[in-house]
């Protein structure tokens, strides 16, 4: 356990700081301040403005998708994304229990029910094999889609998440879901800039969602983006997140019950400044990951690195410790020394509101839950 003291001094030296070292702090090294002041000078601080349009264009370019829609946060983006692919009250959605609670809340907001399937131990994201096993046992294709033979409910979406920016086996997931007529929504909240087989994450599924919360790799203060290659769905996303107002010179005509999930221009201005620095952030994070990898390999500690065929954005870096006892000791020692570290999330079926939901064996999720710890990962 001596390596923990050495880890603490390594992190202090690497971040060149004797003070508290957070898990992930934003870095404003570009045009952020200038763009923010522009919004004030122009009075366009609120729900429309040039930075919203520019942000959407930048996101289309970065994710190589046809349409990006700025939204108020990633959670709202996920809620709408599920609605866009046809999730309705009483439906079931395939997803992972090893995730941040927003993934599952977005399912619940639609009145749908999560089905918790296991993750792969290497990607930490939804396992294609677990999906296949589940659907072989419970799936049935009918005229209106895939149904769960046991509950009689429709399975109307699959929602995998790219954990900490490490891509899931998204192509395998897409292939299985295509066979079963299930649309895929990617929770790419953590994986801006990550690639699977040289293609950016978020653009694989029917719809993908990003977060620009303050702790993510690029931030708008609070915010999110919905991306898709389906022009129709993209327009629908914009419509649904902007109160479904019919375009008219002066009349207020709203066509359905929709949302005010707009990203204000002031937030989009910040995001534009941040996106200009994305390549720099990715490069700095890769160099930090390399330093960690070298340090931990010398200590016999498993530092998680990107897998073959993928490029990770290294949003939050992590180590896999021996067991739960070791994990708890590591968390205690580092946090007491002013180095912020955090365990991976509590599995979703252990939370009171989701404890009755279906789950499969969860062998890998349980394994990771007891061992994975995030370590300081800021751009420096
Ligand atoms: C951050 C995050 C979200 C939600 O994003 P917000 O912008 O904070 O609403 C959703 N899913 C995952 C996996 C996240 O990490």
Automatic annotation (TrEMBL):
The keyword Ribosomal protein does not apply. Pfam families: DegT_DnrJ_EryC1 (PF01041). The keyword Lyase does not apply. It comes from the Bacteria. NCBIfam families: NHT_00031 (TIGR04181). This is LegC family aminotransferase. InterPro entries: DegT/StrS_aminotransferase, LegC-like, PyrdxlP-dep_Trfase, PyrdxlP-dep_Trfase_major, PyrdxlP-dep_Trfase_small. GO terms for molecular function: transaminase activity. Belongs to the DegT/DnrJ/EryC1 family. Keywords: Aminotransferase, Pyridoxal phosphate, Transferase.
């Amino acid at each position: 356990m001596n390596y923990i003291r050495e880890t603490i001094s390594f992190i202090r030296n690497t971040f060149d700081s004797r003070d508290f070292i957070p898990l992930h702090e934003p870095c404003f090294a570009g045009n952020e301040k200038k763009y923010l002041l522009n919004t004030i000078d122009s009075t366009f601080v609120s729900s429309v403005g040039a930075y919203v349009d520019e942000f959407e264009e930048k996101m289309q370019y970065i994710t190589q998708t046809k349409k990006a829609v700025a939204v108020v946060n990633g959670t709202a983006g996920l809620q709408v994304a599920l609605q866009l692919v046809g999730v309705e009250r009483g439906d079931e959605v395939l997803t992972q229990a090893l995730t941040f609670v927003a993934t599952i809340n977005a399912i619940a907001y639609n009145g749908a029910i999560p089905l918790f399937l296991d993750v792969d131990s290497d990607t930490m994201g939804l396992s294609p094999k677990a999906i296949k096993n589940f659907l072989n046992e419970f799936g049935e294709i009918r005229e209106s889609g895939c149904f769960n033979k046991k509950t009689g409910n429709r399975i109307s979406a699959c929602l995998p998440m790219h954990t900490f920016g490490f891509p899931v086996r998204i192509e395998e997931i897409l292939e299985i879901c295509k066979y079963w007529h299930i649309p895929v929504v990617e929770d790419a909240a953590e994986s801006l800039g990550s690639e699977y087989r040289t293609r950016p994450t978020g653009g694989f599924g029917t719809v993908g969602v990003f977060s620009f919360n303050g702790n993510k790799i690029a931030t708008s203060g609070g915010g999110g983006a919905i991306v898709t290659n389906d022009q129709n769905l993209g327009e629908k996303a914009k419509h649904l997140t902007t109160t479904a107002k019919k375009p008219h010179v002066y009349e207020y005509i709203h066509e359905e019950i929709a949302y005010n999930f707009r990203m204000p221009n002031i937030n989009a201005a910040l995001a534009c400044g941040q996106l200009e620095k994305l390549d720099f952030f990715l490069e700095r994070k890769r160099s930090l990951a390399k330093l960690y990898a070298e340090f931990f390999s010398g200590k016999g500690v498993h530092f998680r690195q990107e897998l073959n065929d993928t490029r990770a954005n290294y949003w939050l870096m992590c180590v896999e410790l021996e067991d739960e006892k070791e994990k708890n000791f590591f968390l205690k020692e580092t946090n007491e020394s002013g180095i912020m570290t955090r365990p991976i999330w509590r599995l979703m079926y252990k939370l009171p509101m989701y404890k009755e939901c279906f789950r499969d064996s969860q062998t890998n999720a349980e394994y990771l839950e007891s061992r994975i710890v995030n370590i300081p990962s800021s751009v420096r």
